[in-house]
Each structure stands twice: as structure tokens, then as C-alpha cells.
Design brief:
This protein is mostly beta strands and 478 residues long. It is built from no helices and 40 strands. The chain is globular.
């Protein structure tokens, strides 16, 4: 029997069944593209994107507030009438490095600014030689408990690939893959395994028109040898994934006239591969995943965490969203009018007992390209849930807006431990209205804003029970 790569949620019973709607993330008078996230600092995560207008493009930095499920642009990182593209983030202990590719100096360079204490540093350069340095790549945050990220950025220069530590700006970049007139390296992927301080870099290698997927590993003894993972057809778009502290790799190849996504489960056993589809109806590409806990193969099925990819046919592009494919709950093939789409799936921090992930894509609306997304929730704290998420119903508070008091109603179908918290717009917990075991039934909880000396504004209340949660917004209007 052929192995067919079916991407489904490994811990479906741990995922809230709340229906998450598509959210428009940007609304600028420009073409907003190429969003990237990195991790989070405290209760807030950061993201960056490029905005094109005329013959120039700017880079923006934004914040995502998990408790409010809200995206907000906070500053323009660079706006100098040049092309500033491919922005990436690297998190440090108390700051965020915003890297981007710029042609300000007459050729392509890799620059960055540091955002710290609500201010931006001057512009520094990772690479600014007379040759073009392009396509900066950083590692991805997978861990929902710790937002660690290595400080290395990889980039292409000529036909080679280099890597540099942005925390050591005066050091010389290291050449990882050496290209020449007949050999070109590109399409780089870089990932870190925190537990072992190992990281891996992969690239597409083209030699005299023949394509290869190669990688190297960095460990205690430095960089290892170049290893070939694939050498057939038009193999391309390699991407390293970390699953339970082990690296695997996906890439795209043309099989029987269709583009298909191939997964190599173990880098030291590249012959053991799985296909996204045994009989593809579309051309598949741009595979992203986030596997916050584990993923295992059972018989001919491969159980994965959150994922997304593009599917194209007849000049139309679709985004396949994660999870809802499972058990045919919902058709998640989403049409987008932007064919050359910069798809992204990232960890946007955590809120209470949940890890927050977003699939991000681009679509055209009102004459501009804007960024859109849909949330995915991974429950951190619950491993032995007894009930489905439908075991409670949280109603909208009434009245809303309110002053000074309002009533929050909810219904339990089973006895369970119930917690009801209130948060402000910044995610700070204001109070706990309830934290006790309750039998099945309908409940009304009074919330009096005067007790907590609250000012007018938007607040959120969150009900947690049985390992699941629901959040609603309320407005205090004095």
C-alpha cells in the first residue's frame, strides 16, 4: 500500500472546537505582503511585514495581543523611498531584531534595526558588500513554553549561502554552502533544536541544471558535511521541520505531471519518504507546519500538528487551512486572488492555557493586497480531557456596553472546575470572578466594575472548564 501523507491533528481532543473566523490583519493604503513572526516577549508577540507603494516598499513592526486576539501596527521600521523587503524577526531577551533586505546602497544588502524599550535603534548591517546579499532566513519559534530563538541569519550571496550571528555584528559571515559558476545554492531553511543546541540548514542545489536538496548540521564539533537528501526531478522549496526535538524535511517535486509535497521523516534515512497526496488533483507547494507537541506515524497515516500549504489549478490558487480537514468537518480550501502568495504559519505566543497559532496569507481587497489570517489553538494544560468543548456555553454579557455592572451567563452540561477571569485590553488580568467546582446547570455572574476602579474601555472575560476555554469582549462605557 502506498504511504499517503495525511496531515491531521494528533491531539484533536485537546483542541478547542470554537470556529475561528478569517481576520483581516492589515488595512493600509499599500500592498501588504510577506508577514513573518518570531516568538513573543511576555504577553505580547511581534510580527513584521512589507508594504509596497509605487516603486518603493516599507517595513512595519506590529504587535499581537493574544487575550484580545488583536493585531496592531506599532511603528514603521524603515521608509526611505527604496525597496525594503523580506523582513524577519529575531527575538532577544528584552528586544526584537527586525532584519530586511534593502537596495538603499545601490545593490542588495541585509540590514536590521533593534526595537527595545519602545524605540528603534539606528540601522545596522548584517551584510553590505558590493555584491548582492539577498533572502535573509531565520529560525522559527516552535515551542509554546519558551520563546527561545537562535540569533543566526542565513542569506544568499552570489551562488553561495552564508550565515552570521546578529549578536556579533563585527564578525565575518561564515560560508556554509559554496557555489560557483556551475553550482548555485538557494531557497534556504534554518531551524534550531533547543534541547541539544543543534541546528540544521537546508538548501536547494542546482548543478548544471540538475536539482538537489542538501543539508548540513551544526553541533558541538562545528558544521558537518553536506548531505544530499533528494536528487531527482525538479526538487525544490526545502523546509526543515522540528517534531519532538527531531528534524525532518519537506520539499516539492513534480510527480506524474503534478507538484507534490514530499516529507522526509528522518534526515539520516532519506529513503523513507511520504507524499502529501497519492493522487494529487492540484499542484501543491509552500508547506508550513507547527508541531507544538508530538507527531507520529500510525500505519500508512502520518499524524501532524498544525499545517498549511498552497494548491493551484487552472491559474487559480487556494490556501489549505489546517485541522478542519480532520473528519471532514469543514472544507478549508480557501481561494485567494493573489497567485504569488507568501504563505506563513507562526506561533503568536500563548494565552492562559492555550498556544496561539495563525495561518497568514495575502488577498486582494479594495484595490490593494492585504494580509489575512485564521487562528489555531493548541491547549497546553489539558492532557486528559473527559468532555468535548461543547460541554459549556458562554453567552455575551448583558448589558453591553455597560456602566457600571453587567451579567455574564454560562451553561455547564457536566460538573467541572470552572474559572472565569476578566482581562484588560493589554492582557493584564483584572480579577477572577469564579474559581470553583460547579455542577451542571445555568449560572449568572455579576461583574461590578466599580469594585476594581476600572476606566472606560474594552475588556475581555474568559471561561475555562474541562481544559477548554472561550473568550468574549465587553465594553465599559462611563
Amino acid at each position: 500500500m502506498k504511504k499517503i501523507l495525511l496531515f491531521v491533528s494528533l491531539l484533536a481532543s485537546l483542541i478547542s472546537a470554537q470556529s475561528f473566523h478569517i481576520k483581516q490583519i492589515t488595512n493600509l493604503n499599500a500592498d501588504c505582503r510577506n508577514l513573518s513572526c518570531g516568538g513573543y516577549l511576555g504577553s505580547v508577540s511581534y510580527y513584521t511585514f512589507e508594504a509596497h507603494k509605487g516603486n518603493s516598499s516599507s517595513v512595519y513592526l506590529g504587535q499581537y495581543f493574544p487575550v484580545a486576539d488583536s493585531f496592531a501596527v506599532i511603528t514603521q521600521v524603515i521608509d526611505d523611498n527604496f525597496m525594503n523587503i523580506n523582513p524577519k524577526l529575531i527575538y532577544s531577551n528584552d528586544s526584537v531584531f527586525v532584519l530586511y533586505q534593502t537596495n538603499k546602497n545601490g545593490n542588495w544588502d541585509i540590514a536590521y534595526r533593534v526595537y527595545i524599550n519602545n524605540q528603534l535603534s539606528p540601522v545596522y548591517y548584517v551584510a553590505d558588500s558590493s555584491a548582492d546579499e539577498i533572502n535573509p532566513v531565520v529560525s522559527t519559534i516552535h515551542d509554546i513554553w519558551y520563546s527561545t530563538q537562535n540569533q543566526f541569519v542565513a542569506f544568499e550571496k552570489g551562488n553561495s549561502v552564508y550565515i552570521k550571528d546578529v549578536h556579533l555584528p563585527d564578525t565575518v559571515a561564515t560560508e556554509i554552502f559554496h557555489g560557483d559558476d556551475s553550482t548555485k545554492y538557494s531557497q534556504v531553511s534554518l531551524e534550531l533544536i533547543d534541547a541539544y543546541y543543534e541546528f540544521y540548514i537546508a538548501a536547494r542545489k542546482v548543478v548544471n541544471g540538475n536539482s538537489f536538496i542538501v543539508y548540513k548540521q551544526y553541533g558541538y564539533n562545528g558544521w558537518g558535511d553536506e548531505i544530499v537528501l533528494a536528487n531527482n526531478g525538479n526538487c525544490r522549496s526545502p523546509k526543515i521541520h522540528i517534531i519532538t526535538y527531531k528534524p525532518c524535511l519537506s520539499y516539492t517535486n513534480d510527480i506524474n505531471g503534478k507538484s507534490n509535497i514530499i516529507l522526509i521523516e528522518e534526515l539520516n534515512q532519506p529513503i523513507d519518504t511520504l507524499k502529501l497526496s497519492g493522487y494529487p488533483l492540484y499542484d501543491y507547494d509552500n508547506f508550513w507546519d507547527q508541531s507544538p507537541l508530538i507527531a507520529t506515524k500510525i500505519k500508512d497515516f502520518y499524524n501532524y500538528g498544525f499545517y498549511t500549504y498552497t494548491a493551484s489549478r487552472n491559474d487559480s490558487l487556494f490556501i489549505r487551512l489546517s485541522k478542519s480537514d480532520y473528519n471532514h468537518q469543514l472544507d478549508t480550501m480557501l481561494y485567494t486572488k493573489v497567485y504569488n502568495n507568501n504563505l506563513y504559519l507562526g506561533n503568536f505566543g500563548k494565552y492562559g492555557g492555550n498556544g496561539v497559532y495563525y495561518t497568514i496569507w495575502e488577498d486582494s481587497i479594495s484595490g490593494n493586497i492585504q494580509l489575512f489570517g485564521r487562528m489555531e489553538i493548541y491547549n497546553i494544560g489539558a492532557v486528559n480531557d473527559k468532555y468535548s468543548p461543547s460541554t459549556f456555553t458562554l453567552s455575551q454579557n448583558y448589558p453591553n456596553p455597560f456602566n457600571p455592572g453587567t451579567v455574564i451567563n454560562f451553561k455547564l452540561l457536566h460538573r467541572d472546575k470552572v474559572t472565569l477571569n476578566v482581562y484588560d485590553i493589554m492582557g493584564k488580568q483584572v480579577c477572577t470572578l469564579l474559581n470553583e467546582d460547579k455542577p451542571a446547570g445555568t449560572y449568572s455572574i455579576n461583574f461590578d466594575s466599580k469594585k476594581y476602579c476600572l476606566s472606560s474601555g474594552i475588556y475581555f472575560y474568559r471561561l475555562i472548564t474541562g481544559g477548554y476555554s472561550s473568550v468574549k469582549k465587553m465594553i465599559l462605557m462611563k
